[in-house]
Amino acid sequence: MANRRKLAAGNWKMNGTAAALSEVQALLAAHPAPGCDVLLCPPATLVHRMAEAAKGGALSVGGQDCHAATSGAHTGDIAADMLADAGASHVITGHSERRTDHGETDEMVRAKTQAAHDAGLIAVVCIGETLDQREAGETLAICAAQLTGSLPDTASAANTVVAYEPVWAIGTGKVPTLDQIGEVHGFLRAELEKRFGDNGTSMRLLYGGSVKAANAAEIFAVPDVDGALVGGASLKAADFSGIISALEKA
Length: 250
Ligand code: PEP
Fold this sequence. Notes:
globular, 11 helices, 8 strands, alpha/beta
């Protein structure tokens, strides 16, 4: 069994201005030496300030998306290298909201993930089925195809985290059963090992979708769940702190 360090990752989505940085101070005060990795991905406007605020503390900062190119005529986009320059160590790629709002395909996610690796960032690569796909019995096939298509060959346990996020569970308060989470995570682990060998054994697999302090402990007890990617419940230090505490005990 691989010794995978657990990760509590927060995705602030399009929420937060400078005033929200007080949540970072509160989080650092509550967890000066957490027993798991802690990551927050604020909007791009806050990456630098959050990285400054977290300096010396046990909190990593990440972007929510990056462009596949290193520079050029891409108005409004941000290169992975720019995120690194701003103080990010991670970047989320392939979040379902990017796939839906911006038509991102597996091929695009793979190129972005490659760009993240090239910039020295750890990519948190998101995959997951829609409700229609689950009800049609396609969950494992969809997850397998997204996993294969979204990960470049450079993926390793050091530079990649995979987040399984059923689209229907994101921001809805609906959570798969523990058996359903276990089925997908076990399947994804096997897929990762088939392709990446020992790196597949050591790569962290997060669950994401309506994780809260109240349901975190039972989700973290599911085999092959190495932490969570958390949206709404990562915005307030008090809420995210409860999830971190549950992960520390898992
Ligand atoms: C997410 O944005 O990745 C997410 C899982 O959101 P929520 O926790 O709000 O469902």
